[in-house]
Design brief:
The complex is a heterodimer of chains A (157) and B (82). The two termini of chain A are 26 Å apart. In chain A, strands 1-2-5-7-3 form a 5-stranded mixed β-sheet. Chain A is globular and about 55 Å long. Chain A has 4 helices and 9 strands, in the order ββαββαβββαββα. In chain A, α2 packs antiparallel against α3. Chain B is an alpha+beta fold and 82 residues long. Chain B has 3 helices and 5 strands, in the order βαβααβββ. In chain B, strands 2-1-5-3-4 form a 5-stranded mixed β-sheet. The chains are: A alpha+beta (157), B alpha+beta (82). At the A-B interface, β4, α2, α3 and β8 of A face α1 of B.
Chain lengths: 157, 82
């Protein structure tokens, strides 16, 4: 889903496939106005909560609403900071330890806007985008519980 | 109306979505209406505080939100993306 609002290009994709960070950064293209590009990549880790090693992480989402919710978050970021480009890719399906989960790229004239907006988008994405994680171990599976601190961190913005 | 369930709610209800003719006019009454039809809803909606609701793909904060003329209502636990 692509949107151009004011002078900001917003692109949101929910996909099973992996992403190529370099290719995505290159996709910003040459724009005279951009002076700083920030990117965040979330990867699957073994939370080591259990005695067993994580076999896979399953990600489920609400098709349609996920894209809309993330675009709303990006637009909120764009209202706060002068950013020219936002790209969010979130993977769904079954992932393994070390696999990419999410990519957020923000670009603007200055670094602070890029850093801040990328952090803002990630913070809100965690508890406002309809995505759920399930951890699969050899002998059992469990849904990841939302963290109170994630919800509380939104109040800081 | 299309009613969707995600994550452990989907597992408890047993289907990802269902098309139902409902009488209720708001989300609160819809939950009560579902609970009256089958025990599985009572179990799924046991801890109502841990359930989030979206009406036509928009998160709502209050269960009194009207569902008149809406296309879909979704129930799910707190989100854990990122």
């Amino acid at each position: 889903m692509n949107k151009k609002i004011n002078n900001c290009f917003i692109s949101v994709n929910i996909q099973k496939d992996d992403f190529d960070v370099n290719a995505e950064i290159k996709s910003i293209g040459t724009r005279k106005i951009i002076g700083g590009i920030a990117n965040f990549i979330g990867v699957v880790r073994d939370t080591q909560k259990e005695k067993e090693e994580l076999v896979s992480l399953e990600l489920e989402h609400y098709p349609g609403m996920t894209e809309k919710a993330i675009i709303t978050i990006c637009r909120d970021a764009q209202k706060r900071w002068e950013i020219n480009f936002v790209k969010v890719i979130h993977r769904v399906g079954n992932l393994k330890i070390g696999d990419n989960i999410v990519l957020v790229i923000t670009a603007s004239a200055h670094r602070k806007e890029s850093f801040k907006s990328a952090e803002f988008i990630m913070d809100f994405l965690k508890s406002r985008a309809p995505i759920w994680k399930k951890e699969h171990y050899k002998t059992h599976s469990s849904w990841v519980q939302s963290k109170e601190e994630d919800e509380l961190s939104l109040k800081d913005w | 109306m299309k009613i969707l369930y995600f994550s452990w709610l989907r597992e408890k209800i047993g289907v990802p979505f269902e098309e139902l003719e409902v009488q209720s006019e708001n989300v609160h009454d819809l939950i009560k209406e579902l609970i009256r039809t089958d025990q599985k809803y009572a179990l799924a909606f046991e801890d109502i505080k841990s359930i989030r609701v979206a009406v036509d793909q928009k998160l709502i904060q209050n269960l009194n939100v009207s569902i008149k003329n809406v296309k879909e209502v979704a129930f799910f636990p707190p989100m854990t993306g990122g």
